[in-house]
Amino acid sequence: MTSGAATRRVTLGRTGLQVSPVTVGTAAWGVTSPDHGLSVSEDDAVETALAAFEGPLTVLDTSNNYGRGESERRIGLALAERTPPEGFVVQTKLDRDPETGSFSADRMRRSLEESLDRLGLDRLPLLFLHDPEHITFDEAMAEGGPVQALLGMRDEGVVSHVGIAGGPASLLRRFVDTGLFDALITHNRFTLVDRTADELLSAASAAGLGVYNAAVYGGGLLSTWPRMSDRYAYGTASPELLAAVDAMGAACERYGVPLIAAALQVSVRDERIHSTICGMVSPQQLDQTVRLLDVEIPNELWQELDALRPHRSTWIGD
After folding, report:
1. For the domain that residue 43 is a member of, what is the CATH number?
2. pTM as predicted
3. Between these two residues, 4 and 74, which has the higher pLDDT value?
4. Is 141 within the bounds of a domain?
């Protein structure tokens, strides 16, 4: 597996961590993954992690609730089998209680302990608070709330840097503006067809945060053309958005460029984004993703794709 673009390293904002332009996403690494419409075997997940340790990518992204803990456990199996190279980043996220939805400080502590146990680690380079849209901003920031718990973990030295990861761009902007976080993950909101997160990315970049952009294929809609889905970001896409995808796919075909390559590179080429998180479920898919970084896309095609982007009324817009 070789790629000139994939070997590039960039500093992840004020964290100082050196990261590759693409991060291995593991949200689907569970026994079943209804949101992703697939199942990933333990062997495939472990082999993908091991391939990542040997290849040009330098980050694995997981979370306490991915696959109800299976994602972390499988990464732990790979870590027990092979030590990744120095500087390789395994990052995870604090999650609410799967039964009660609690974001209490006690739950955040248990979330961290569960993650460390599954991964077989005693500390983390980067830990995110995940999906704070399930409570209010004030609840998240309250005394004894999850943000205070996360910052306490950093103060104790069990994590080096802290981040915020979630959906609604306007809510994430409020967290970014507190100045408390070192990194951000946004998903589904900066793609070929949706720029909901544009102002969020600018704010995070200006504040010196490390910035990850995830779900650039919109849940699969932008990964093939002719398209095989009518869904974007876990919901049914509008006719206007689907028409834009079809027009973009046709434009890419005229230039001999796979639509998926443009969908990946539109994120990678943005200077505000340090690394793009892509779900990968096999060593072969990891290799394919790395190779997509080296697909040459002419400026004329980028201009055409920009012109084909659908009206903001079709975006997620939160």
Report:
1. 3.20.20.100
2. 0.96
3. 74
4. yes
